[in-house]
Amino acid sequence: MINIGIYGYGNLAKGVLKAVKKNSDFNVVGIFSRRDPKKLKEENKEVNFYSVDEVLSFKDKIDVMIMCGGSKSDLPQQSPLIVSNFNIVDSFDTHQMITEHFDNVNKNALVSKHVGIISVGWDPGMFSLNRIIFDSILPDGNTYTFWGKGVSQGHSDAIRRIDGVLDARQYTIPIDSTLEEVRSGNGKKYSAREMHKRECYVVAKEGADKARIEQEIKTMPYYFADYDTTVHFITKEELDKNHSGIPHGGFVIRSGETSEGVNHVLEYRLKLDSNPEFTASILVAYARACVKMYKRGEYGCKTVFDVAPKDLSNLDYQNLIAHKL
Amino acid sequence: MINIGIYGYGNLAKGVLKAVKKNSDFNVVGIFSRRDPKKLKEENKEVNFYSVDEVLSFKDKIDVMIMCGGSKSDLPQQSPLIVSNFNIVDSFDTHQMITEHFDNVNKNALVSKHVGIISVGWDPGMFSLNRIIFDSILPDGNTYTFWGKGVSQGHSDAIRRIDGVLDARQYTIPIDSTLEEVRSGNGKKYSAREMHKRECYVVAKEGADKARIEQEIKTMPYYFADYDTTVHFITKEELDKNHSGIPHGGFVIRSGETSEGVNHVLEYRLKLDSNPEFTASILVAYARACVKMYKRGEYGCKTVFDVAPKDLSNLDYQNLIAHKL
Fold first, then answer.
1. Consecutive sets of 10 residues in chain B, 325 residues long: mean pLDDT of each?
2. Which of A7, A175, A285, B226 could cysteine-pair with B192, CB 3.0–4.6 Å?
3. A126, B133: Cβ pair inside 8 Å?
4. pLDDT tens digits, residue range B89-148?
5. Scanning every residue of chain B, which has its alpha carbon at the shortest distance from the alpha carbon of A309?
6. What is the domain class of A126-273 according to CATH?
7. CA-to-CA separations, B178 to B135, B191, B219, in angstroms, rounded
8. pLDDT of A95 above 90
């Protein structure tokens, strides 16, 4: 049995609670939150809640802590802090800050001799894994990453900040014809506009100027200006009814040659009903690997690049080679 | 620079020669064959050929030997033999014999303290990798493997053994409508006939009874009887002109739930112009990993399940986490 703690209690943590129900080798010791444990217990009676201040007293009771805070302000502080006393896995996903986060977690993990696996999820995570394996087994080629169809939180937030907008949901959608071209192995480069389009569902405040809002969205630099963007104005009721899910997914495709004119196309594709539930499931598999690595005496900061596939599985090695190879 | 030897000289070995040209960190020391090195040198002046009897004198000149013999009679003998003095990678692909082959390679690798990575390719290999990662990150679900469209050597051989057949090529083809159903995440089980069909191109001897040949193919137990099989009689010229390539590929698809009604579909797909060239490229990437593992002091028999993705890449770790994660 692997005893886990969950640090933070949002959508991702709720996904972890669901994921461990699908994995018989896990036991949830408790959830650590800055919010009042008593109030959280009223919300969910199935699990124990503790204050983050109590975490040290669980040092010998928890094999690995699953860090469920946000990448912007929580994980940069919490992961280095917690790895000083626990093995951890986190889903830090700010690509341009990964090296800094790695160094911060590594420094403390090397001292405490714990394992901290960072940036676990599907991108970064499964997509990264496929990108480096694809690159390595087909070195002469091009890799394409498409995201969606899925809700982009950052783009939805950007729309919500526009004057006159009550609520909004933005979908990033890969362009089918480009996907098909990429799959044909033509090796071409594509612009942002050629790869993705953006679809926005916007609830305007009463009396707001919809034409201006639409214009502001479509011309917003970086977020929308480089894409073909469609804006639909809908009611709050429609938004809540038809756009409350958090689906996502995407494609990593590599095409390349092994010799003149001999082409290969490799594709990895995810179609997810719930982004946080799927990310949580990946975190749980890597939590298992984290504990196995720690028990072998490994320590320091790790990523999906360091983890041997066998460590993700709850089957023993004999079984894996006999039935899964 | 990684110095490799190639053991055996068939299609796979020729693929390895092409693959190393795409990887700047490899150097081919020589090819070891049971055939006369002088005659082989006439066939290919770019590389050194040696008799298999000379192999021991290369013990300190070769970092890893890429085993290019067949799974049926070569590799079961050669891999355990060569791993007693060299690191090796092989593409042993007889699924039901893998445990025995593993044990034979492992026994000698543990004594010689070398690394032997067996069953490297796309199935077993990349497909196996995806099967266990998919199972681990989405434990409540079903995994489907489809092969093709591609040439099956075993099925082509089976047709050639029929009286009156001069030559033949058999394509295994996934059934599109089943693929689409699987991708919808319905979780259904399918029969062999529902997943694949078989298409045969047959050159009959002059005067042979084509109706009987077609009947013998379609009713052949295990190979064809369980599938919808189409037989086309063509001339030897047509076969050579239109069916001389060795394309292959396939799909690994897993669908499953993380909670009631919340479904996810994960898909890995390969579309290959040349089966041996692509398999050779995978072998070369795992040869790199083999040498890294050996240099870290690891030894024994390994599979793709043991190899951390970073070891496949020729980029350093700093670079990987900064740019590929």
1. 97 97 98 96 95 96 97 95 98 93 98 98 97 98 96 91 96 97 92 96 97 97 95 97 94 97 97 96 98 98 98 97 93
2. B226
3. yes
4. 999 998 889 999 999 999 999 999 999 999 999 999 999 999 999 999 999 999 999 999
5. B305
6. alpha beta
7. 21, 10, 23
8. no
What pLDDT sits at residue B12?
Answer: 96
| Amino acid of residue A202 | V
Q: Among B20, B46, B25, which residue's Cα sits nearest to residue B280? A: B20
Residue B136: closest CA among chain A residues belongs to which residue?
A313
Q: What is the pLDDT of residue B95?
A: 87
Q: Which residues of A touch B258 (CB under 8 A)?
A: 15, 18-19, 22, 274, 277-278, 280-281
Q: How far apart are CA B76 and CA A168, in angstroms?
A: 62
Q: What is the pLDDT of residue A153?
A: 85
pLDDT greater at residue A225 or residue A96:
A225
pLDDT in the model for residue B88 = 98
Q: Which residues on adjacent β-strands are paired with residue A259?
A: A262
User: At a CB cut-off of 8 Å and minimum separation 6, what does B211 contact?
Assistant: none
- Percent of chain A residues past pLDDT 90, beyond the cut: 95
Q: What is the pLDDT of residues A142-157, one digit of tens each?
A: 999 999 999 988 899 9
Q: Which amino acid is at A273?
A: D
Residue burial A155-172, b: 16+ Cβ < 10 Å; e: rest:
bbebbeebeebebbbbbb
pLDDT of A23 over the 90 cut? yes
Which of helix, strand or coil describes residue A25?
A: coil
Residue A236 backbone phi and psi in degrees, to 5 = -60, -35
pTM for this entry:
0.95
Written as six digits, the tokens of B307 are: 């190899």
End-to-end CA distance of chain B: 26
Distance CA B79, CA A133 (A): 25
The gap between the terminal CA atoms of chain A, to the nearest Å, is 26
Residue ranges covered by each domain of chain A: 2-123+276-323, 126-273
Note whether A320 contacts B314, CB cutoff 8 Å: no
The gap from C-alpha B315 to its chain's centroid, in whole angstroms, comes to 25
Residue A224 C-alpha, separation from nearest chain B C-alpha, in angstroms: 24
Our CA angle for A312, A23, A133, nearest 5°, is: 25
Contact B277 A258 (CB under 8 A): yes
Q: What are A37-92's pLDDT values in tens digits? A: 999 999 999 999 999 999 999 999 999 999 999 998 899 999 999 999 999 999 99
The SS3 assignment for B304 reads: helix
| Tokens 């009631």 found at | B260
- What CATH superfamily is the domain B2-123+276-323? NAD(P)-binding Rossmann-like Domain (3.40.50.720)
Nearest to A107 by CA among A296, A303, A300, A239: A300
Q: Under an 8 A CB cutoff, do A281 and B138 touch?
A: yes
- Determine how β-strand A165-174 pairs with β-strand A196-204: antiparallel
Tokens 């078989």 -> residue: B198
- Picking from A45, A60, A52, the residue whose alpha carbon sits closest to that of residue A31 is A52
Q: Could you tell me which residues come within 8 angstroms of residue B207 by beta carbon, excluding any fewer than 6 positions away? A: none
- Residue by residue, DSSP assigns B194-217 as HHEEEEEEEEEPTT--HHHHHHHH
Q: CB-based burial of residue A315 (10 Å sphere; 0-12 exposed, 13-18 middle, 19+ buried)?
A: middle
Residue in A312, A301, A311 with CA at minimum distance from that of residue A118: A301
Q: What value of ipTM does the predicted structure carry?
A: 0.94
User: Which of A12, A15, A34 is closest to A153 using CA atoms?
Assistant: A12
